[in-house]
Design a protein that fits this description.
The protein has 587 residues and is an alpha+beta fold. The protein has a domain at 229-543 and 560-572: 3-Layer(aba) Sandwich (Kinesin). The chain has 15 helices and 18 strands. Strands 1, 5, 6, 7, 8, 9, 12, 15, 16, 17 and 18 form an eleven-stranded mixed β-sheet that branches. A three-stranded antiparallel β-sheet has the order 2-3-4, covered by helices on one side. Helix 1 (2-114) packs across helix 2 (116-160), helix 7 (286-299) runs antiparallel to helix 8 and helix 12 (494-517) runs parallel beside helix 15. The longest helix has 113 residues, at 2-114. Bound molecules: adenosine-5'-triphosphate (ATP). Residues 170-171, 173, 256, 258-264, 269, 381, 384-385, 481-482, 549 line the site of adenosine-5'-triphosphate. Keywords: ATP-binding, Coiled coil, Cytoplasm, Cytoskeleton, Motor protein, Nucleotide-binding. Pfam families: Kinesin (PF00225). GO terms for molecular function: ATP binding; microtubule binding; microtubule motor activity. This is Kinesin motor domain-containing protein.
């Protein structure tokens, strides 16, 4: 029992305590709630205040910004206004200034044109026009003087017995793009290094050679540029044709490296058949043009006063061949010998001389002869000539007295010669028996042929260059074979002998020119058939024109320099002064 009482007491105590605690907690909660309510009130009061202050700040800011912008805008506007104002002021000044300037310049111009200065200007203008006119006249005069200087130079050349040297630079051609390079692979790039810089000067750019000079200049009597036509080249040669009829021996010789344009210059280029007649004429070389000119000049002389014969020779492998001859079996192109006559002239024994009456006939015989000329394709030139070609037009002329005497003799001998006359102009007798009206005195001399002659003619005695009242002058037109370097032309086998003969004969020509230029006592004409054959032309009293042909490209520069050097040496030669053969000729 007491346990229960204690328990109740403890329990009641605890309840009491808990009730106490609860009351104190409830009081605390009440307290806190009151505090919370007060805080809420305060917060609401603060939020209200904050809101009020924010609204106020925003409107203040807005107001301020607007105020600032407005003021700066106003400022800017006023500045713009100021600037506009200044600008309009400046523009006004400018307009006034421009108007004033215009007015002033008008006034000045008026003044100038009316004043003496204007007269001076007019005078000056007149003087300028006068000077221009006189300059034009000076130019014309200069041209005339140049022409005169050229003529005087030619006369001097003639008086001193100089060899005339012309040079023709050929254009760059498709064949230049096919030249194999020295390294052996591919083709050499085409570079033009030789230029005709005036009508008498040629310049070689040597910068890529081992020479110490940058460029070399060569001067000749005439230099033809690549664009010069065949006609232009012939124009410069033409005066020599008149010399021929005036009684001089004339030789025109084309020299140059293989493929440099010698045959093109002397004969013209094939195929001419494809061209019109006028184009063909324009493309013709010196030989056909010279033949045409010769017959034109003869047509201006008394009829039957001149007779022309043509012969065609080639020097191949140092042997002379008569390309118009024919033996009993009909074989064309007989070998011939060259001799020196008692008068010191060189002659080909038994050479065929075909009489011709027109340029067309000359060309017919030439074509016949050319069929036999040696040609061979090489790496440099697909149609390379392997021989020297010499076309000779022999002009025989008579004085009117000789003509009359010949006619009387003709009548007297008529009966005696009636049987043999038929043979006079047969091919076999042509060489030994010229027409009877040309035989006024004994002309034959004993045969001096050093070796048996292969000609079918009865006596291959040398032809006299003239008999009393009959004069023979020769026009020799020479297309030399081209010098070549075997390595470049790619020639092998039998062709090597040809190249060797060509090069040796050209060396012999160079030696002869050198000996003549240095006035050596012995001139080695006999070192080759070519120089022996052309002895009269090179060293004798003939008028000789050397036509140098050169390729313009770097690939052939060594050969071109060699040709130009030979031309320069030839110009130094002072051979005997050209002599007229027919001083007494009156026709
Ligand atoms: N001035 C030129 N204008 C146009 N073509 C040219 C000229 N010169 C040369 N030719 C052409 O160049 C080529 C070689 O010329 P050509 O046959 O005359 O050379 P070449 O010197 O006679 O050679 P080779 O000594 O080997 O016979 C030809 O096809 C020719 O037609």
């Amino acid at each position: 029992m007491p346990l229960f009482v204690n328990k109740d007491r403890v329990f009641a105590h605890q309840v009491h305590l808990l009730e106490h605690k609860l009351r104190s907690k409830e009081e605390r909660i009440l307290e806190l709630e009151t505090e919370n309510a007060i805080l809420h009130l305060r917060l609401a009061e603060c939020i209200g205040k904050l809101h009020q202050s924010r609204v106020k700040d925003d409107s203040d800011l807005k107001h301020n910004t607007q105020r600032i912008s407005r003021s700066s805008l106003t400022k800017l506007l006023s500045e713009v206004q100021d600037l506009k104002h200044e600008l309009s002021e400046i523009f006004g000044v400018y307009v006034t200034f421009a108007t004033e300037l215009e007015e002033q310049s008008k006034i000045l111009l008026d003044k100038v044109s009316k004043s003496s200065a204007g007269e001076e200007v007019q005078n000056l203008q007149a003087r300028v026009s006068a000077l221009e006119r006189s300059l034009e006249e000076e130019r014309k005069q200069c041209k005339v003087e140049r022409q005169r200087r050229k003529e005087l130079h030619n006369t001097l050349v003639e008086l001193r017995g100089n060899i005339r040297v012309h040079c023709r630079v050929r254009p760059v051609l498709p064949l230049d793009y096919l030249q194999p390079s020295t390294s052996g692979s591919g083709h050499t790039p085409v570079e033009e290094v030789i230029q005709a810089i005036s009508d008498d000067t040629v310049m070689v750019n040597c910068s890529k050679t081992e020479m110490h000079v940058q460029s070399k200049i060569f001067e000749f009597e005439r230099v033809h540029a690549p664009e010069d036509s065949q006609d232009a080249v012939f124009e410069e040669v033409k005066p020599l044709l008149r010399s021929l009829l005036d009684g001089y021996n004339v030789c025109i010789m084309a020299y140059g490296q293989t493929g440099s344009g010698k045959t093109h210059t002397m004969l013209g280029s094939e195929p001419l058949e494809l061209l019109s007649e006028t184009q063909q004429e324009a493309q013709q070389g010196v030989v056909p043009k010279a033949a045409t000119e010769l017959f034109q000049l003869i047509s201006e002389k008394p009829t039957e006063s001149h007779m022309v014969e043509v012969s065609v020779i080639e020097v191949y492998n140092n042997e002379v061949y008569d390309l118009l001859s024919q033996n009993e079996k009909g074989t064309m192109g007989q070998k011939r010998d060259v001799v020196t006559t008692s008068s010191g002239e060189s002659q080909v024994l038994g050479l065929t001389y075909e009489p011709v009456n027109s340029a067309a006939e000359v060309m017919q015989f030439l074509k016949k002869g050319l069929k036999l000329r040696a040609h061979c394709p090489t790496l440099i030139h697909t149609d390379s000539s392997r021989s020297h070609l010499i076309v000779t037009l022999t002009v025989s002329s008579k004085s009117p007295n000789a003509l009359a005497l010949a006619r009387r003799l003709q009548r007297a001998k008529k009966d005696m010669l009636s049987s043999s006359r038929k043979q006079f102009w047969s091919p076999q007798c042509r060489r030994a028996n010229p027409p009877d009206d040309f035989l006024l005195s004994p002309t034959s001399s004993p045969c001096r042929s050093p070796s048996p002659c292969l000609s079918p003619s009865p006596c291959p005695s040398p032809r006299p260059s003239h008999t009393p009242d009959i004069f023979r002058n020769k026009l020799q037109l020479v297309d030399l074979a081209g010098s070549e370097c075997v390595g470049m032309s790619g020639v092998s086998g039998p062709g090597l002998w040809e190249v060797s003969c060509i090069n040796r004969s050209l060396c012999a020509l160079s030696d002869v020119l050198g000996a003549l230029a240095e006035h050596r006592p012995h001139i080695p004409y006999r070192n080759s058939k070519l120089t022996h054959l052309l002895q009269d032309a090179i060293g004798g009293d003939a008028k000789l024109l050397l036509m140098l042909c050169v390729s313009p490209t770097q690939h052939f520069i060594t050969e071109s320099l060699q040709s130009l050097g030979l031309g320069s040496r030839a110009r130094q030669v002072q051979k005997s002064v050209p002599r007229r053969k027919n001083n007494t000729l009156q026709v």
